[in-house]
Amino acid sequence: MTKNLRDLLLAFKSGEISLEEVEKQIKFNYFEEIENKLKLDVNRHFRTGVPEVVYGRGKELDEIIKATIKLAEKNGIALATKIEDVEKLNEEIKKYDLKNYIIKINKKAKTLIIKNKNYSVKKIGKVGILTAGTSDIPIAEEAKDTLEVMGVEVITYYDVGIAGIHRLFPALKKMVEENVCCIIVVAGMEGALPSVVSSMVDIPVIGVPTSTSYGIKITPLLTMLHTCSPGIVVVNIDNGFGAGVFAGLIAKKVYEGNHDKNHRGGVNRNTE
Where do the coiled-coil regions begin and end (predicted)? Predict the structure, then answer.
């Protein structure tokens, strides 16, 4: 079995393998192919900080499972999103020998996480997630699972939309106290919650419009894009994964900055 790129370089550094073996293995590490259908970018994590994730929509369950297993073999942990038949997934995955892995199926988020029992995810910070309503929770959970794979702790408060604005204040207070590096705000209907949140905190806000609405599905996206409150970035409709990745990269950079400060004798705000 080929090593992932990091293990390969460490093995070369320690003298375990030769330069010729490194060259041969690197050729194998460009991608992994499954049944001449799927080509997996198994080393994406080392280039971008984000591992490849299996997009489940339009794929057969066996394709999703095999691809997620292969990515978990290479990276220790793997995620699949937007799985259409998540109810059947629970039965199908029992057909595979995964005794060395921890399986997490999130039916609400329609996600699958496969993690090697011996793999430890490095913790790199905290992110807050809010939803306007309970109908927005599946997209929030997709973002949460994405952040879990990236090693980010998540603080969630659901159903705190502007129809009952008093529900929002305790959630924001907790997130400020916990020193989250950014807040993902998931909202449908008119999509006003991200603007309200960004007007009250000095923390970057990631707006996620959802397709939850009585009327035109694009309305929350347009509301967020046309916000008059600065400090918001917006992902596409129902893109919890994209929001999770963006928040995770922010958390990673904040963690690295604090880590560098500690090595230089600076102060880590998280430990004050």
Answer: none
pTM of the model: 0.81
Lowest mean pLDDT among 8-22, 94-108, 148-162: 8-22
Q: Architecture of domain 126-255 in CATH?
A: 3-Layer(aba) Sandwich (3.40)
78-116 burial code (b ≥16 CB/10 A, e <16): bbbbbbeebeebeeebeeeebeebebebbeebbbbbbbb
Each residue's pLDDT tens digit, 200-251: 999 999 999 999 878 778 999 999 999 999 999 999 999 999 999 999 999 9
Q: How far is CA 213 from the centre of its chain?
A: 25
Q: Which of 159, 158, 201, 209 lies closest to 180, judged by CA?
A: 201
Strand 111-116 and strand 77-81: the pairing is: antiparallel
Q: What SS3 state is found at 70?
A: helix
First to last CA, the chain: 45
Q: Which of 207, 240, 213, 202 is nearest to 226 (CA)?
A: 207
Closest C-alpha to 50, from 180, 182, 118, 152: 152
Report yes or no: 185 and 194 within 8 Å, Cβ to Cβ: yes
Written as six digits, the tokens of 141 are: 């959970």
